[in-house]
Amino acid sequence: MSRRPDTAFWTVLGLVGGLYVLLIVLMLSADVLYTTPGHLLEALRSREIRFAIWMSLFSSLGSAALSILVAVPLGYALSRADFPGRRLIDALVEIPIILPPLVVGISLLILFQRPLLKDLGVTYEVPSVIIAQFAVAAAFAVRTMKITFDQMSPRTEWVAQTLGCTRAEAFVRVTLPEARRGILTATTLAWARSIGEFGPVLVFSGATRLKTEVLATTVFLELSVGRLEAAVAVSLLMVVMAVAVLLVVRRYGVRP
């Protein structure tokens, strides 16, 4: 058989896909070529940016921890259990993924202005940063854990139960160890999503320097005062973090 049709097919796919890959490479190259090591060092010497780095690390770790605490049981229930409203809940979990980020922030702001929650004093404080990040990151973690459990055969759980384990014991002793790669993937994705979250944090937490400022809002603040070099330097820091997360997921995790 002639290979000419295959050659044309793969050539078209390569051209279409290659254009998008080229765009990504050009974007990253533009950032790297625009800034210099001096700009990076100057950004790191800034008290505000150093605070934003530590705040981002602190809040994203808290958000990732909360996300995985929700994602493991909810992902397992959506994968294994058959209960009324399962499809509805499955759809509701995806809403934070498809909603515009600013809408998520506005919704959180309105929710925590209600009488019972307003007295907590969360809005525009440090806890609001974690909540804003968690509201979106948890959805990605739940989806990842559901896919993980979907890919796992329930046979090992059934065997454990026939040997005397309860459903809970089988889950802890058999299912969780088997799902460890998926848990790592869900955690790192939630952390990465939290690091890059901007819209909900800006609306719900504000961008107060040395208080609720994170790296994503730092880029916005630096741009708003015309300091493009500092904004690009901070952006490169976030790119490095994102690449590190991707390497961890590719090496140790599972594909979401």
What distinguishing features does this structure have?
256 residues, mainly alpha, 14 helices, globular
* Assembly context of the chains: single chain
Weakly predicted, low-confidence segments: none
Number of helices: 14
| Distance between the amino and carboxyl termini | 38 Å
Total beta strand runs: 0
- Helices and strands, in N-to-C order? HHHHHHHHHHHHHH
Q: Please state the average pLDDT score.
A: 88
Kindly provide the radius of gyration, computed on alpha-carbon positions and rounded to a whole number of angstroms: 22 Å
Characterize the biggest β-sheet: none
Shape: globular
Describe this protein's structure.
- With 256 residues, the chain is mainly alpha-helical.
- It is 80% helix and 0% strand.
- It contains 14 helices and no strands.
- The protein has helices at 4-34, 37-45, 47-80, 86-93, 95-98, 101-111, 115-118, 126-151, 155-162, 167-178, 180-196, 199-204, 215-224, 228-252.
- Helix 9 packs across helix 10 (167-178).
- The mean pLDDT is 88.
How is this fold's topology laid out?
Layout: H1 4-34, H2 37-45, H3 47-80, H4 86-93, H5 95-98, H6 101-111, H7 115-118, H8 126-151, H9 155-162, H10 167-178, H11 180-196, H12 199-204, H13 215-224, H14 228-252
